[in-house]
Amino acid sequence: MQAATRNTPLAIEAAMSAIANPRRRQILRLVWDAERSAGDIAATVHEVSWPAISQSLRLLKNSGLVIERRQGTHRFYKADRRGLGPLEAVLRQMWTHDLGRLRELAEQEARSRKKRHD
Amino acid sequence: MIEDLTGAIEVTQRIEASPEIVFAYLTDSQRFVAWMGVGAQLDPRPGGRYRIDVDGVHIVSGEYQVVDPPRRLVMSWGWEGHPTVPPGSTTVEIILTPERGATILTLRHLGLPDEGERRLHTDGWTQYMSQLAAAGSRN
Questions:
Q1: Comparing C-alpha atoms, which of B1, B9, B4, B3 is closest to residue B77?
Q2: Would you list the domain boundaries of chain A?
Q3: DSSP state at residue B42
């Protein structure tokens, strides 16, 4: 995973770029209610090539929006609906990231104040 | 402390600084933007409003409900333009507990869409994301 740039909630960025693409939105809707095999998805989204679909699935998986399950040589996909789905994960990651930054800054300030008192 | 944990997430941090310093990072605009967003207008008093420019594209805004320095902060929270999590729709509660010179910060984000709203939410989230993507590509 890429290093987080300051103030950029990683999950929001990842989910945003993942869902920005209409094909990926279409795939996400397909797997929202039921798990589907890669072949099934490719058959439904038939106007695009398999490599393009495969790449979309990989991106959705990497951004935490879709879970992949392998069975033999087959791959199955479904939307990640644990907790509140993407929102909960996005918010949790955002707050954890930002509050980590707050902690560093507050601790720096506490140390420099203490030095002045010593 | 707000007891209803429906649709809630909780994040805890132990910070080696006094609650007074931590509280300043939550309510002082200049200190605030050092850890969240690229711009912030904060009016930290009950009924006061805040607006945070998260990254030049996302705007979060809301209203302070409880401002009790240096212990507790409660505010409404939402993304401007979001169909299911707009400003006013969710609540963020931050509690600072002193512990031997340090502070335990507990942040709870409450009132997130429940199970019945998930489908709606996904549609909303998708719509919001595509709006943001469109806005982002114009910049």
A1: B9
A2: 10-117
A3: E
State the residue for tokens 């605030």: B32
Query: Which stretches of A45-85 are DSSP H helices?
Result: 50-62
Is the link from the previous residue into B70 a cis peptide, with omega within 30 of 0?
yes
Residues of B in contact with A15 (CB under 8 A): 125, 129
The third-level CATH classification (topology) of the domain covering A10-117 is Arc Repressor Mutant, subunit A (1.10.10)
Each residue of A4-50: pLDDT tens digit? 333 334 455 566 666 667 788 788 878 877 899 999 999 988 778 88
Tell me if residue A36 falls in helix, strand or coil.
strand
Please report the domains of chain B, with CATH numbers, ordered by start residue. Answer: 9-138 (3.30.530.20)
Are B18 and A7 within 8 A, CB to CB?
no
Instruction: Report residues of chain B scoring pLDDT below 50.
Output: 118, 136-139
Calculate ∠ Cα A62-B127-A16, nearest 5°.
30
Return the closest-CA partner of residue B85 out of B47, B136, B123: B123
Among A residues 80-99, those touching chain B with beta carbons less than 8 Å apart: 81, 83-88, 91-92, 95-96, 98-99
The pTM assigned to this predicted structure is 0.63
Terminal C-alpha separation, chain A? 42
Q: Which two tokens stand for residue A26?
A: 């279409």
**Residue B58 Cα distances to A92, B8, B79, B129, angstroms:** 17, 21, 7, 10
Cβ-proximal residues to B26 (8 Å cutoff; 6+ apart), any chain: A102, B32, B44, B73, B94
| Token pair belonging to B57 | 């594209």
